[in-house]
Amino acid sequence: MDTNRDCLLKEIMSVDFTSIELGLYLNTHPWDQRAIMLFNSSVLKSRMLRDKYEKMYGPLTQQSPNYGNTWKWIDSPWPWEK
Q1: Is 82 helix (H, G, I), strand (E, B) or coil?
Q2: Would you say residue 63 lies in a domain?
Q3: pLDDT score of 73 more than 90
Q4: Number of domains in the chain
Q5: What is the pLDDT of residues 13-53, one digit of tens each?
Q6: DSSP state, 1?
Q7: Where do the Protein CotJB domain residues begin and end (predicted)?
Q8: What is the rounded distance in angstroms from the CA atom of residue 30 to the CA atom of residue 81?
Q9: In angstroms, rounded to a whole number, what is the distance separating the alpha carbons of residues 78 and 59?
Q10: Is residue 35 domain-resident?
Q11: pLDDT averaged over every residue in the chain
């Protein structure tokens, strides 16, 4: 078990949860500048963390960039496999 991998994946899930919740909030409060700033920040952080994860461990989704010379989407374990 790779604890660094698990920690990074949990951080991605946490940041993505924040983005989703802020997006829902902004649907009813579209002029909240602080929420917009936090939303943008969490989206950028998610992209950065996903890029880091995928370069180290492989793609999170089939639409992720493929780093290297082989199609890594089919490699195990997949993020949801434990």
Answers
A1: coil
A2: yes
A3: no
A4: 1
A5: 999 999 999 999 999 999 999 999 999 999 999 999 999 99
A6: -
A7: 8-81
A8: 38
A9: 9
A10: yes
A11: 88
CA 11 to chain centroid, in Å, comes to 8
Q: How many other β-carbons are positioned within 10 Å of the β-carbon of residue 80?
A: 7
Residues 6+ positions from 48 with CB-CB distance below 8 Å: none
Supply the DSSP string of 25-81, one letter for each residue.
Answer: HHHH-TT-HHHHHHHHHHHHHHHHHHHHHHHHH--SSTTS---SSS-GGGPSSPTT-
- What is the domain range of residue 16? 3-74
CA distance 77 to 47: 21
In a domain, 58, yes or no: yes
Give the pLDDT confidence score for residue 66 in this predicted structure: 75
Task: Judge contact between 37 and 31, C-beta under 8 A.
Answer: no
Q: Is residue 80 part of a domain?
A: no
What SS3 class is residue 2? coil
In this prediction, residues 74-81 reach a mean pLDDT of 69
